[in-house]
Every structure is written in structure tokens, then in C-alpha cells.
Amino acid sequence: MSDTATLAFEIGTEEIPAFDLKRATEQLAELVPAALDAVRIPHGEVAIYTSPRRLIAIVADVAARTEALEEVFRGPAAKIAFDDAGNPTKAAIGFARGKGLDVDALERRDENGTEYVYAVRQVPSQDVAALLPEVLRGVIDGISWPKSCRWGTTTEMFSRPVRWLVALLGNTVIPVEYAGLVADRETRGHRFLAPGPHTVASADDLVSVVEGAFVVPTQEAREAVIRKGVAAIEAATGFTADLPAKTLTEVINLSEYPTPMVGTFDEEFLKVPEEIIVDAMLMHQRYFPLYDADGKLTNKFIIVSNGDPAHEDTIVDGNERVVAARLYDAKFFYDEDLKLPLDAYVDRLDEVVFQEALGTMRDKTARVVKLSSRITSAAGIEAAEMRDIARSAYLAKADLVTSAVIEFTSVQGIMGSYYATAAGEAPRVARAIAEHYRPRFSGDAIPTDIIGQVVALSDKIDTICGLFAVGQAPTGSSDPFALRRAALGVLAILEETGLPISLVETIDGSLIIYREAGLQFDNAEVRREIIDFFITREKVALRDAGVKADTIDAVLACGIEEPIVLARRARALEAARTENPQVFDDLATAFARANNLREIGLGTGYKKAELTDVETALAEAVATAEGNVAAALADDRYADALVALAALRAPVDEFFDTTMVMDEDPKVRANRLKLLNRFANVFAHVADFSQMAKK
């Protein structure tokens, strides 16, 4: 492209929060080209560079002028635009006004024998440098932040105060104005290593100037620096670092010049449960723990510094002091909590509100104990396991009021497990306490055994039922209580374990417990909403797994309320449909034909003596299928039920190929319709194949 230049735009700020910076980086990649395109500025590729203190857009091949443009708009037909005397009508006047033209400027053009009026508007070429101040100001305003602030006497709002602006088109400064600042050619470097200002001669130099001022200007490059440094530390120590994705993302966007370093804490702190130490390092300080060859936590950890590497000893010493203070607190809280047995904390759960209308965590504990008892009774679980389930349900939330969990909230459940073990509780009880929050997210492991599984189900279902009952169901994208995640957890446990538990009966049991506690709500309506909520979650999961929507609808049409039953049947139907597509397409079509013709009011009592040979063959096939389908469904052999239905294909095809159902003789017609009614009834508890018929 001739007569082009590079555009460089930098917004310099105070440190932007890590995850906000990540989202802003993604937004800029869309905002910048869209803003240029909106005013028809020709340009090449857009590259985005960001660090905690800056957002940079580099645009290649920006033209010096926009292209001249002729805009042509077709208006109403000429006979509508002008009256018989040739005078413009309101239609013509309004059309011209809407295009910014005088009515006299409208042109008449013939199109396929019909004359229309056209508005032709010439848009002249414009100087791009003159357009850019407003365009780039719009980019700043277009960035969406979770939280914004004002600073000084300005009225503009941004994630953090904006301290400088750089805007260059080639060698020319673009005077973008924002929050009392006017863009120039001076950028800033690393806050400590090369603060600046640093002069940028041209747009092509901005990134190299920033890099020369000890700033690594992309997330990808900073991650590579961190991983390289971590690998070197691992090689030197023989230990392995844990780099959780969320914490790594945060650390990447907390430093402009990251340098991994190794710190050490007193081995005495290793007597504290590992989870507290890791929580203190990862969640609170963004340090990465190091593990030995056996996977055991060591007293070494990785710091990612944004300071001067020449002062590594001082930086490490300061961070070691910080982590020591955190770990001392953790050890103190842990030792204090152990002075009481875990069950001593249960009554203190009255101090913690679960939900205003649903009472305290102590109230929730009582409900979970009752609901787990209902589940174990219905599932026929052994007495010994029932006792462990009841005990686990009683103790599951007790650690919420311990000092360690109040300070380190992410270890709830885990600390309860440690305290339960210290108090002499059964190992399965301790493990269930640790695992009853599982699965916490998609793909997370479910509780290990039936003890934790039942407590997890009871806890999650109690939460869902209670919040639906008080009108706190998720709406749109809003789900403040994470009920969708809880529902997926329930479904994952039921799916993976195959426990003989009816979700619908468990929902009914939970609502009974709430009513007995005095909560008032429309039971039928809330019950329906909760079942629909679970069914919707299962439908989404099935579609994500590749099951077609009409397959799911075909199963649901039979009145299925249990999500796990829906899942098993939909998968079996989809598999059979995939393996024998022609059979099932034909069967769907045949069912649809029968379903469209049948008259329910006639019943199914056809007269065998009046059947033709073809009709008799279909009647016998239907009778056989009825027995086979009923037996298969009774044993939960849904695939076998589908095989039994597939056996109807040949006789029903023969029936429709040779038989006039709507015979002129009303008796013959009625007898055939009754046979079709019976044929359609075989499908009633399997699937509505009309949902799958070819369109």
C-alpha cells in the first residue's frame, strides 16, 4: 500500500489488576480495528502489547487519507416519489432528507422495467491524521472494566489512573486528549529499572523503546520468561514447581520484568497441613511451591519478582519475611483449632448465616443430615455406611468456624478432615468431610466413596432446593450462588457412580424437610422449576457430548423427569441412530405417519378376525414388541427396547405400502386406526420418533 505509515498508540497507567488486564488485551484486539474500520481508515494488521502499566496498539500500513467513496441508495419507485405533475411527494422529500441531500439531487434509474429514485452521495477523501484523535479517544472509552475509578479533578473513568499517552502516525504526533493529558512521543519504562521518560522517534520504535526500558510487553513473552526461570530453578534444586493456571495468569500480569527467584521458609512450618501452606503461598502471596521427587512439599518456593535482579538477596529476604509471618499465623491457628474436637464447633455454626430466609449453617447441617438419611434409606445402603454418612453430614461444615478456615477460606473441608482425624473420627468420615464439596468445577473428581458421595449430593441438593424455594434461582447469566455448578456436580456424581438414587424423589424429600422447618412456598411450582433446571443442565451436557437436539427431545417427549434416565436413553438412542441411520430414519417416518393418523378416542381394541394378512403380521409384531419393550425398560435395558422397536420396521413398512388406512368403509377404517393406535402406543415409554422424522 503506497503512502502508508505505522500507527502506535500507548495508554500508560498505574498498575492494572491482572485479570482486568487480560480482558483488556482481548478487547483491544477487537476495538482498534473496529474503530479504524468505522471511519474507513485503510490499515494492515493490528498487534496488541500490554503490561501492568500500559496498553499498546501497533497498526501496520495505515493510509495517509481515507478513500473517496460514492454511496448509492435506492429509494421508492418513481411513481410513488413523484405525483402526476412531476412534483416530489413526501416519500421523495423524506428519502432525500434522510440521505442528507436536496430532493433535486435525486436521480431516476430504470431497474427491470420499473423506475426508482436513487440518492447518490459523494464522500470525499479525508486526512487520517485529523481523524485519529477522536478515533483513538473512542478506543480508550470503549474498553470495558469490571471496576473503574476517577482520579484528580477529571471526570473520565478508567481501571486505574492514566498517567501518559503516546500516539504516533509514522513520525507525527497525534494529539489525543484524555483526562487532562495530551498524547506526545514520551513513554515510560519499568517503574524502578528505567522509569524514563523515554523519547520515541517514530511509531515503529515504540515497542523496541519499551523493551529497552526493561518492559516485557506481551503476556506470552512474560510467560516464556517465567517458565524458563522456573525450569532453571527446577534443574538447580531437583525439585518440581506447581504452576496452577489461574495463579500463573495473575503473576504474568503483575510484573513488567519478571524474574523467578527461590525463597526458603523454616522447616518447622511443614508440620502444618500442606494445604494451608500452599494456600498461603499461592492464594495470598502468589508464590509457587516446590515439591521433591516423591511429591512431598519442600520448604522452598518460587518468587516472581518485578524488582531489580541485582538486588535478589534483598528481594528474597523481604519475601521470606512475608511468608514466614503468614505461615506463623497458619501454624498458630491450626494449633489453636486442635485444642477442641471437631464436633465442638458444630453448634457455633449458628454464628454463620447460610441465607437470610434459610437460616444458619447449623440449620443447613440439620437439613443435610435429614436428607442424607432419606437418601441412604431409599438406596438400601448398609447400616455401617449409614452411620458414617450421618456422622459426616453432621461434621461436614464444622470447620467453617475454625480459625484456620476463617483466615484461609479455600481450605474449608480439607481442614475439617484434618481435625476429624485428630479427634479420632473414622477415616471414611474424615475423607468425606474433605471431599463433600466435590466436584467443584467441570472435570473435577467426585468424592471417592459412597460416604462422601451421599453427603455431597445432600449438601448440593439442599442448597438448590432451598434457594429455588425462596426465589433465588439463577436468571440469565446471573448465578450468584453457583447453582448451575452445583447441579452439574449432582449429575456428575449420579452419572459416574450409578447409585440407585432417584433425583426426583430426593428433591421431593428436600422440599418436605424445608416445609417441616416452616418455610412456605408453592411446592408444585418449585418442584417443577427444580426438575426443569436439572433437565436443562443435562440437555446442555448431552448436546456438548454430541447428542442431537431432536434425539433428546424424542426421549423427553415420553415424560422423563430423571436426568440420568434421560442421559442413558438419549445416548442409547443416538448410538443406535448413528449405527443404523436408515432403520431409525425409516422408523421415525413410519411412527410419524401412524401418529398423525391415529385417533386416540377409538382405543386399541381392533378385531383380529377382520384383519388382512398384512395387518395380522403387523398386529403380531406389535404384540411381540410390546412384551420385549416392557421387559427391557423394566430392567433398564434401553438399547434392547430400541432393538425391539426396530423390529417393527419391516411389518409397518409393508402395512403402509399395501394398505389404505382411510378406507371408505367406516368399520374397516376404524379397525385399522385402532391397530395404528396400538402400534403408536408401543413407543409411548421409549421415544417420540416423530421428533426425529425427516423434515
TrEMBL record:
Domain of life according to the entry: Bacteria
Assigned keywords, A-Z: Aminoacyl-tRNA synthetase, ATP-binding, Cytoplasm, Ligase, Nucleotide-binding, Protein biosynthesis
EC number: 6.1.1.14
GO cellular component, one term: cytosol
Domain DALR anticodon binding: 608-685
Subcellular location per the Swiss-Prot or TrEMBL entry: Cytoplasm
Enzymatic reactions: tRNA(Gly) + glycine + ATP = glycyl-tRNA(Gly) + AMP + diphosphate
GO biological process: arginyl-tRNA aminoacylation; glycyl-tRNA aminoacylation
One Pfam family named in its UniProt record: tRNA_synt_2f
One MF annotation (Gene Ontology) recorded for this entry: arginine-tRNA ligase activity
HAMAP family for the chain: Gly_tRNA_synth_beta (MF_00255)
Family designation: Belongs to the class-II aminoacyl-tRNA synthetase family.
Subunit structure: Tetramer of two alpha and two beta subunits.
Protein name: Glycine--tRNA ligase beta subunit
Species the sequence originates in: Adlercreutzia equolifaciens subsp. celatus DSM 18785
Annotated gene: glyS
